[in-house]
Amino acid sequence: MTDWQSKTRAIHVGDTVAYSKTFLQSTGQHTGDVPFARGKVTALIPLGSETTLAEIDWNNEELPPRVNVRNLTTIRGIQLGE
Is the pTM of this model over 0.85? Predict the structure, then answer.
């Protein structure tokens, strides 16, 4: 199992998620609302064998409702510094 597969499986419907540290650093988003956004996963939408989108009910209505699960982490991941 590759690293991205293990991360994809770690996110389930009902989980509270945020953008991952790696994604935020790669896009230069160190301040503002996005690093502090939290949302609940309401559905997982597979787009082929390697891509899955998470449908998210964010605490900030300006964020996109669907995000690639590779760009997310769960709350437990945040606590581990992910």
Answer: no
